[in-house]
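Fill-in record for Transposase.
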Amino acid sequence: MEQTITIKLKLQPNRFQKKLLEKMSKTYICVINDLVSEMVEYKQPTKKTTKNVVAPLPSAVKNQAIKDAKSVFTKSKKTGYAMIPILKKPVCIWNNQNYSVSEREISVPLFVDGRSKRIPIRVQWNEKNNRFQELMKGKRGTLRITQKSHKWIAQISVTIPTKPINGHQLMGVDLGLKVPAVAVTEGGQTKFFGNGRMNKFKKRYFRKKRKSLGKAKKIKAIRTIHDKEQRWMKNQDHQISRAIVDFAIKNDVSVIRLEKLKNIRQTARTSRKNNQNLHSWSFYRLANFIEYKANLIGIAVEYVDPAYTSQKCPSCSERNKAADRQYHCKNCGFSTHRDRVGAMNIIHAPLMHGKSASA
């Protein structure tokens, strides 16, 4: 088994290096846009090589730009040229043979005074870098350097081998709003993750803040508060997914099962006051985080049919609708928390192939 992940490192380029990166990043996307435009005009992939691309870029970067342009053209061709993406965000990409990573810096070829020169760029050090150094021992892919909020970020694709964990239990995980996640193992061990009330409070706070900024017509501040909200939500998903995987390790779980949350926003029933939270919370991202964290340590993740998982009685299979947060079976008397019922049924629900990004 193999798992491909993206490692993100914050860079600390000096003033000279920033100017080089800015110039190369803008040139890189211009080259791609020009090549794609030319390929669309002739309705065929380009046969150009690095010698035919006139741009102040190292030959290795030119070669990568040609590959990326062909990829963009292929996607456009599949849509009958109805959609022709135009890259706007400056970025620069190097293949795995044209950069090196050490403990404190990344060395890449940059275009200086008409020549390609390998220049080391300092990496901002933090505690996460120790774990990244271990992951770097895997098979490295492309290096992507881009600017986000005036900060330079290096994204490195790494493929690492994973071995199946020696667990013997299945675990079902039910995702929701009031309780972000509930996990139940085959042995009956149960744990609730996250704080739904705190999440709702935070969402209301950000909405109120955006509304007041909107009245004041502070557009830039609205974008800033939106980015802050998205970072907070993403951090919550990271914390919950890490806690779920740790719980799985503790209970010798070899397979985690999740619902395939297809079209959840159209099919889920919720109160009017929770409707905005339902439409703004990324269930798919949380499921994705659980999957990649689990796969890294050899725990498999499977997706099941979500039909009636919250209604079916785990004891007698009779369908009942839960009253508030408590589930009670009218047939056999089984009673427990409603979300726990969902997680218990997910363990034995029929498998579905793939997962939907529509949630």
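KEY FINDING: The first helix runs from residue 15 to 42.
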